């Protein structure tokens, strides 16, 4: 099976060596020690149904035996930051979509959500940045939805009354809750015509017993560098405690941006003094989201730094995420991040105690890898795409899904599935393929076609296939502004995929329906060498 082969090819990026993808999905060894590798150039995360993980400014917590990743969902609502999506995982690789934490009129939406567990009340407490009047909070008996929004707000120091509470992190350290937060000053006297428009600085407070407010004492996080314009533009804080030091990770002002300096503050006491480090000049083309400890099963946890990561635009909200283990020196300082594009990092940890979630993409017969260097390509105005693959098994071809993102298109996206006899036939004039099904997706009405890369499914297929059948997926969406899809480099998988079965991407220039070239023998349909788009196919 293609998926099996690809998973093995990815062993370096994957869980335990050589374990096929679908087996990881179904029976990852609960609580087992696993090695996961993260790579700077593999930035997009996908859930087990094959959709892009849509959680900007995310946080990862290990709660009740499971990793949860959650953040602002931009795919449906745009950058309004109102909705919070949540994903769960056993291994930090396979993420199951758990839904929106709280939405609609009763919603407890807001930016940079954080969830912590309160031992005393046995409640999970969610805080979000949502307005001037303190932090919105909501509680739940489980780390999952539904959280019940409180009518009161978590209050911060009254000395910030004229300022806007902004990004924050909350954490329990040695039985006490803490909040590190930044406050925005829109009346910044030294504001420049161009920059900075505002200033903001960070504070740390203790939480009250039930984690629904702070002790109203904001202790300034001013660094040993003298409360300069870096301390005065610090945001997106998260906090952790290690080896006698309180740490606050942060970045400089940079909402939805292509990179900002990555900061790490540390102090022996929350009253300071704070020592500041710059861990990266641009946080590897991203903005720090947080730091979370993983249980290594032997003494000290590994602290994992994660940033948003913008893979070269064109839309910042398509942000991926990068993960790197922090390495500490004896004086408590951390080594700088490694932003080399190909750098990869092994993180060994104890898997969660719940079974790894499965999903449609995990049990697909054929498709592109769960983990690859996916790059957004927006060219449906210029090309019709023909993604092809060879079926790995016999059965009924039930569904085909491709990851597509919309912008502001008016023209529909049309995805058709067909069977063809050979590549030479497919590109030849007058050739007629066998239609298997299709779907026309209207951008204003389809609930699955979002501005993020959801898997768009053609589900009315009933074709009986045998192993080795050639299947094609055509994708058209001609408009003034193009739809976007994801491509990866198939050469990276060439060793394990024979040339005859490798998926291939063919393209046809818009309006090109005749022979081309000096000798008049060039087909208007030709291969985009070494590339393939992200898709999967279910054969039952
Ligand atoms: C944790 O708290 C206990 C008692 O509350 C205290 O004795 C201990 O020193 C604290 N540990 C750290 C690392 O702060
Ligand atoms: C903003 O800058 C002023 C002047 O440098 C400083 O006093 C203040 O603490 C800074 N932070 C905020 C949030 O106002
Ligand atoms: C984004 O950041 C990368 C890495 O710092 C840089 O090479 C690239 O030019 C930046 N792009 C934009 C649009 O700022
Ligand atoms: C699948 O549905 C499309 C409409 O979305 C229709 O045009 C097509 O004929 C259907 N194909 C099959 C095989 O049912």
Automatic annotation (TrEMBL):
<comment type="similarity">
    <text>Belongs to the glycosyl hydrolase 43 family.</text>
</comment>
<dbReference type="Pfam" id="PF04616">
    <property type="entry name" value="Glyco_hydro_43"/>
</dbReference>
<keyword id="KW-0732">Signal</keyword>
<feature type="signal peptide">
    <location>
        <begin position="1"/>
        <end position="18"/>
    </location>
</feature>
<keyword id="KW-0326">Glycosidase</keyword>
<dbReference type="InterPro" id="IPR023296">
    <property type="entry name" value="Glyco_hydro_beta-prop_sf"/>
</dbReference>
<protein>
    <submittedName>
        <fullName>Arabinanase/levansucrase/invertase</fullName>
    </submittedName>
</protein>
<keyword id="KW-0378">Hydrolase</keyword>
<dbReference type="GO" id="GO:0004553">
    <property type="term" value="F:hydrolase activity, hydrolyzing O-glycosyl compounds"/>
</dbReference>
<dbReference type="InterPro" id="IPR006710">
    <property type="entry name" value="Glyco_hydro_43"/>
</dbReference>
<dbReference type="GO" id="GO:0005975">
    <property type="term" value="P:carbohydrate metabolic process"/>
</dbReference>
């Amino acid at each position: 099976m293609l998926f099996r082969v690809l998973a093995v090819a990815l062993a370096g990026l994957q869980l335990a060596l050589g374990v096929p993808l679908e087996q990881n999905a179904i029976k990852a060894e609960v609580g087992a020690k696993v090695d996961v590798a993260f790579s700077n150039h593999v930035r997009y995360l996908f859930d087990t149904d094959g959709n892009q993980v849509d959680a900007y400014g995310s946080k990862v917590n290990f709660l009740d035996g499971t990793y949860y990743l959650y953040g602002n969902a931009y795919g449906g609502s745009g950058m309004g930051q109102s909705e919070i999506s949540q994903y769960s995982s056993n291994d930090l690789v396979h993420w199951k979509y758990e839904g929106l934490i709280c939405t609609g009129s009763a919603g407890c939406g807001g930016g940079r959500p954080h969830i912590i567990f309160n031992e005393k009340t046995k409640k999970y407490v969610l805080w979000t940045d949502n307005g001037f009047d303190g932090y919105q909070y909501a509680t739940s008996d489980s780390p999952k939805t539904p959280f019940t929004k409180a009518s009161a707000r978590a209050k911060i120091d009254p000395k910030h009354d004229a300022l806007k509470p902004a990004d924050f992190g909350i954490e329990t350290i040695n039985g006490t809750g803490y909040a590190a937060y930044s406050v925005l000053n829109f009346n910044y006297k030294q504001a420049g015509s161009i920059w900075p428009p505002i200033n903001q600085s960070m504070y740390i407070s203790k939480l009250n017993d039930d984690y629904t407010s702070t002790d109203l004492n904001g202790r300034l996080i001013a660094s040993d560098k003298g409360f300069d314009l870096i301390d005065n533009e610090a945001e997106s804080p998260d906090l952790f405690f290690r080896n006698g030091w309180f740490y606050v990770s942060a970045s400089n002002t940079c909402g939805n941006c292509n990179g900002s300096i990555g900061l790490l503050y540390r102090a022996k006491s929350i009253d300071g003094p704070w020592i500041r480090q710059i861990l990266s000049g641009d946080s590897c083309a991203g903005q720090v989201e947080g730091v979370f400890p993983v249980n290594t099963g032997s003494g000290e946890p590994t602290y994992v730094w994660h940033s948003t990561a913008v893979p070269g635009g064109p839309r910042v909200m398509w942000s991926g995420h990068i993960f790197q283990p922090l390495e500490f020196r004896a004086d408590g300082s951390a080594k700088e991040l490694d932003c080399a594009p190909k750098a990869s990092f092994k993180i060994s940890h104890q898997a969660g105690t719940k079974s790894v979630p499965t999903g449609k993409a995990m049990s697909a017969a054929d498709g592109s890898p769960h983990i690859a260097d996916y790059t957004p390509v927006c060219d449906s105005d210029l090309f019709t795409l023909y993604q092809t693959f060879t079926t790995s098994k016999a059965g009924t071809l039930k569904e085909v899904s491709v990851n597509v993102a919309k912008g502001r298109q008016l023209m529909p996206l049309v995805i058709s599935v067909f069977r063809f006899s050979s590549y030479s036939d497919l590109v030849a004039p007058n050739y007629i393929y066998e239609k298997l099904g299709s779907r026309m997706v209207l951008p204003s009405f389809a609930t699955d076609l979002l501005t993020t890369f959801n898997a768009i499914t053609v589900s009315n297929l009933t074709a009986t296939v045998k192993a080795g059948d050639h299947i094609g997926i055509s994708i058209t969406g001609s408009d003034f502004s193009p739809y976007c899809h994801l491509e990866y480099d198939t050469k990276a998988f060439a060793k394990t995929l024979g040339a005859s079965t490798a998926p291939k991407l063919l393209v046809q220039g818009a309006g090109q329906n005749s022979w081309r070239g000096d000798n008049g023998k060039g087909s208007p349909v030709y291969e985009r060498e070494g590339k393939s788009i992200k898709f999967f196919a279910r054969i039952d």
